[in-house]
TrEMBL record:
GO molecular function terms listed in the Swiss-Prot or TrEMBL record: orotidine-5'-phosphate decarboxylase activity
Gene: pyrF
SMART domains documented for this protein: OMPdecase
Reaction(s) this enzyme catalyzes, per UniProt: orotidine 5'-phosphate + H(+) = UMP + CO2
Protein name (record): Orotidine 5'-phosphate decarboxylase
């Protein structure tokens, strides 16, 4: 059977009131939902719990990056909300990621614990300015190795790095790829981008898509068109 990528819609809205009109029209069979820094900061854990209670798979994208003790406790708090997936920055290092893994040990159904590698908005030049003078793909690979040995379930990367990571870590290692742009949609601040169809053909498990859906004139039609293109 053809691999079907799961779409997670990035609910990058300023507050709950702006997000609900779209959420109300969605159902958990259509997509998962990602709550990131903007919406979480304004709408908080209650909003996340409501999505979980309505049966949505929720990706809590707060990209934790701090000392091991702090990240471990933050990841536990995320798990207590019942989210399906949570992420930390892999560049926080092995001890930080191991602490996060250990913090989830006593949850019967812990969320997937995912490491962010190199943000999809970054190019080699952006990386060089932070003192990392290597190609994004090499840095992604290095951080994915660290995430894997630290016991994480997968990584956030761009679709361009998928084949290299699948070859090294196999298909059970979960790849989450933002920077997904249907043909004709605006790139915005993203740099390492790919279409949904190309990303699905690579066997990527989770495609994160925000503005091409949420900023479309008709967000439901945009989501349906993408879902349809993935079933062809
Ligand atoms: O962890 C993420 O979700 C993430 C990692 C990354 O490298 N790049 C990235 O764009 N994201 C998130 O994915 C979403 C992409 O949104 P759009 O660019 O609007 O499709 C945003 O909510 C970002 O915060």
């Amino acid at each position: 059977m053809k691999h079907k990528s799961q779409i997670f819609v990035a609910l990058d809205f300023p507050d709950a009131a702006s997000a609900w009109p779209l959420v109300r029209r969605l159902n958990p069979d259509m997509c998962g939902l990602k709550v990131g820094k903007e919406l979480f900061t304004s709408a908080g854990p209650e909003f996340v719990k409501r999505l979980v209670d309505e049966g949505f798979r929720v990706f809590l994208d707060l990209k934790f990056h701090d000392i091991p003790n702090t990240v471990a406790k933050a990841v536990r708090a995320a798990a207590e909300l019942g989210v399906w997936m949570v992420n930390v920055h892999a560049s926080g290092g092995r001890r930080m990621m191991e602490a996060a893994r250990t913090a989830l040990a006593d949850f019967p159904e812990p969320p997937l614990l995912i490491g962010v590698t190199v943000l999809t908005s970054m190019t080699a030049d952006d990386l060089a300015e932070t003192g990392i003078a290597v190609e994004p793909a090499d840095q992604v690979q290095r951080l994915a190795r660290l995430a894997a040995v630290s016991g994480l379930d997968g990584v956030v990367c761009s679709a361009w790095e998928a084949e290299q990571l699948q070859a090294e870590f196999g298909r059970d290692f979960v790849l989450v790829t933002p920077g997904i742009r249907p043909l004709g949609s605006e790139q915005g601040d993203q740099r390492r981008i790919m279409t949904p169809e190309q990303a699905q053909a690579l066997g990527i498990q989770v495609l994160v898509i925000g503005r091409p859906i949420t900023q479309a004139n008709d967000p439901m039609a945009a989501l349906q068109a993408i879902n349809h293109s993935l079933t062809l």
